[in-house]
Amino acid sequence: MPAIHVNQLRKTFTAKQKAAGLRGSLKSLVRPEQQTIEAVKGISFEMESGELLGLIGPNGAGKSTTIKILTGILYPTSGEARVLDLVPWQQRRQLAYQIGTVFGQRPQLWYHLPAIDTFALFGKIYELDDGEARKRIAFLSEAFEIEELLKTPVRKLSLGQRMRCEVAASLLHKPRLLLLDEPSIGLDVVAKQHIRDTIRRMNELEGVGVLLTSHDAGDIEALCKRVIVINHGEIVYQEKVSTLKRRFLTSKLVDVRYAEEINPDFTLDGTEIIKTGRYGVKLRFDSRQTPVESVISRLAEAGSLVDITISDPTLEEVIRKIYEESGT
Amino acid sequence: MKRELIFLFAVWKANLLSAMEYRAAFISQVAGMILNDAMYFLFWVIFFNKFEQVSGWQLPDMFLLFGIVAAGFGLGTSLFGNAMQLSDAVATGKLDYYLALPRPVLLHLLATRTNASGMGDVIYGVMSFFLAGQLTLDAFARFLLGTLFSMTIFISFLVLVQSLAFWMGHSQLLSNQATNAMITFAVYPITLFEGSARFILFTLIPAAFVGAIPAEFVRTFTWGGLAQLVGASVVMLSLAVFVFYRGLRRYESGSAIQIQL
């Protein structure tokens, strides 16, 4: 039995439309115009128990709407979905005992209280007995390295520290499935890595399945085995992450700044210069043909480095490539 | 039932801990509300100094009425403080938090906020009861029961009005006006109103069941009075739960960044 089974799932919203300014507002007051927005357009997919599945797409692609339907927060307009063999919007409470959720923009931890108080409250909400809850909190605080943070009011934690506590709280009741909506949003590189490592470890330790949405391809690359790319409410690609990497995450972007002015005709073998400025250059290279360390060492030889950023192509670029390959 | 009570006490405890994180603000809100209620009631004391009674109501009756309304309203906003913010929660997608957890959404939402000022209302309400002069154990027990009925009907009314947000989108202003109307009419002697105004106070804005009827029940026990309060509570509560859950099917969530206070 798959952990998640989704068949032809659709969700539409109606949104009021109005022209800008006072005139538009008055017109809308007299004759309001509604527009139907199809957030999810009949998607179908399955996820196995214990799988690490990524759902990626740009902002507004329909990722969050899908995850909200799968947690029972939203009713779909049509279609079927079963999560752990339960229909989320009909058996929401039964399902909530078996899944954990983290919404990057919707913290569960109480802002003015230390995280330990929210953990205690969640223990009561999930009906854990006090001894069991204490043991679980001790285990999670060690796994997530949050022992020192638990007694500090949440408002005083950094975003990365808070997110570690959020994910730990979502695992308090030993869920079989973890649904994470943009858990790394706004985090710096180190905090992102920490979160990813711990989620992977919990998957290995407890076999908890993970469905993760993100608009950061790096999350999926580091964490998931399989990926679904969603755009404008439709699935445009589903494959193993290794295949996605091989086919679409081949190039790296480098943004480098020097202490002194650089030659306007700056070039570097094996790279494509995208933009040259007075003190810096932006270039792209294929990491399968030109190793990253070779590019960095040659850039360092070219002058006194002040700053360097290496990034993957944006999701928009990946999706464009997918469309190009499929000829649509 | 026991499961839900354990859960409710845990939520109320977290509310109290959260409110007490800011000790000075907590104390000043409680004390400020006691003072506010006392200042408001001073008007009635001055009034009854000039006129001995209004449509058969005297100052001790007003103490009793105000005591019930203040205690019922205060207990409601202390234990179910989110009833005042329900429409905002619907419009801005704050129900996600409650829907993701395995508890009854409405009960969880209502209980997850304590207005410290409500505790001031409760304290003033009890003081007002004692000032009414009906100092028997029976009367006090009826006062506590009457307060519970008053609270149930008041909170149910708030849930009903604020649930309009599921259909109307943002309805906080309308909700505020309805709340103010309820409180205003509840603290006037019911004998002042006749005809259609009286009918409204027993139906559309059931202020009579929040103030006058429970106050009368405290003054004199009758089975009829008790039946009226039980009936009104059951009807209002059932209606509120039904409308909220019908509306919940229309809930559209949202993408606003939020924090759980």
What proportion of the residues of chain A form beta strands (DSSP E)? 25-35%
What pattern of helices and strands is seen along the backbone of chain A?
EHEEHEHEHHHEHEHEEHEEEHEH
Distance between the termini of chain B: 27 Å
Report helical residue fraction of chain A. Answer: 25-40%
Report the average pLDDT across residues of chain B. Answer: 92
Question: CATH superfamily of the largest domain in chain A, please?
Answer: P-loop containing nucleotide triphosphate hydrolases
Q: How many separate domains of chain B?
A: 1
Strand order within the widest beta sheet of chain A? 5-6-7-3-8-9
Helix/strand/pairing category of chain A? alpha/beta
Strand residues, percent of chain B: under 5%
Walk me through the structure.
- The complex is a heterodimer of chains A (328) and B (261).
- With 328 residues, chain A is an alpha/beta fold.
- Chain A has two domains: 49-247, P-loop containing nucleotide triphosphate hydrolases (Rossmann fold), CATH 3.40.50.300; 250-311, Alpha-Beta Plaits (2-Layer Sandwich), CATH 3.30.70.
- Chain A contains eleven helices and 13 strands.
- Chain A has helices spanning 21-30, 63-71, 92-96, 115-125, 130-143, 159-170, 189-206, 217-223, 241-248, 292-301, 315-326, and strands spanning 4-17, 33-47, 52-56, 78-83, 99-103, 177-181, 209-214, 226-231, 234-240, 251-258, 271-276, 280-286, 305-311.
- Chain A has a six-stranded mixed beta sheet with strand order 5-6-7-3-8-9, sandwiched between helices.
- The radius of gyration of chain A is 23 Å and the shape is globular.
- The mean pLDDT of chain A is 89.
- Chain B has one domain (2-10, 27-248).
- Chain B is globular.
- Chain B has helices at residues 2-20, 23-50, 59-79, 86-91, 96-99, 105-111, 116-131, 137-162, 165-168, 172-186, 195-202, 207-210, 212-219, 223-248.
- The model of chain B has no long low-confidence stretch (mean pLDDT 92).
- Chain B has 261 residues and is mostly helical.
